[in-house]
Amino acid sequence: RCLEAGLGSCIGHNFLSNLQYLPCFFSEIGVLYWHLDPKKSESEEELAKIRKDRGYNYMDYLDICPGKLANFEEKLKNFFTEHMHADEEIRYCLEGGGYFDVRDKDDKWVRIWIKEGDMIVLPAGIYHRFTLDAANHVKLMRLFLGEPVWTAHNRPQEDHPVRQEYVKRLTDDNAGLALAAH
Ligand code: KMT
């Protein structure tokens, strides 16, 4: 399986850190991934193109670190509670790092290590959670299509139409997910 290319092991999760080598795994679960360089102007152009192509008109920044984010502990606890959203979750890492844990097709956790320059889109309806890495700090750009809605729907959400749609694409129409990725 393609997934094995970058696998190590970390606290009982499948653990991905060489993200560019895993397009196959990402397309399987409908995740999009780019590597940009926040310090380079070519990356600004590439980011502008991604935003234009995918309609990401909204943008803000989120600095997650103990002194900078109000109610840090509580927010981290919520981020690390397994949940889904009714929309895509689009994050571009500008500084620091963190872990997105996502459920694979067999409902097992896969840990994705996001570092500076990594940009990731989690599809609407995927179960996931987030936590910081050892640096205990991340600066993220958040993008959104339209008016942002950050509502987290904690698992279980099997009756949620967006979850049902995601599961349907994952199981009987995996080609659709693969086509959406690149
Ligand atoms: C969310 O709901 O925003 C998350 O899953 C946390 C990742 S971005 C801090």
How does this structure look, described?
The protein has 182 residues and is an alpha+beta fold. It is 26% helix and 34% strand. A hairpin with a 2-residue loop joins strand 1 and strand 2. Helix 1 packs across helix 5. The protein is globular, with a radius of gyration of 16 Å. The two termini are 18 Å apart. The site of 4-(methylsulfanyl)-2-oxobutanoic acid has 10 residues, from strand 4, strand 6 and strand 9.
Low-confidence stretches: 1-12
The helix-strand sequence is: EEHEHEHEEEEEEEHH
Sheet of most strands: 9 strands, mixed
Radius of gyration: 16 Å
Number of helices: 5
Topology, number of strands = 11
Query: Helix/strand/pairing class, anyone?
Result: alpha+beta
Q: Give the full name of the CATH homologous superfamily.
A: Jelly Rolls
Mean pLDDT: 87
Q: Name the hetero compounds present.
A: 4-(methylsulfanyl)-2-oxobutanoic acid
Helical fraction: 25-40%
End-to-end CA span:
18 Å
Task: Give the tags.
single chain; 182 residues; alpha+beta; Jelly Rolls; 9-stranded mixed β-sheet; two-stranded antiparallel ribbon; 11 strands; globular; disordered N terminus; binds 4-(methylsulfanyl)-2-oxobutanoic acid
Provide the fold topology.
Layout lengths: L6 E4 L2 E4 L6 H7 L2 E4 L5 H14 L3 E7 L7 H8 L3 E2 L4 E15 L5 E7 L2 E5 L5 E5 L5 E7 L8 E2 L6 H12 L1 H7 L2
Parallel strand pairs: 2-7
Antiparallel strand pairs: 1-2, 3-8, 4-10, 5-11, 6-7, 6-8, 6-9, 6-10
The chain binds 4-(methylsulfanyl)-2-oxobutanoic acid.
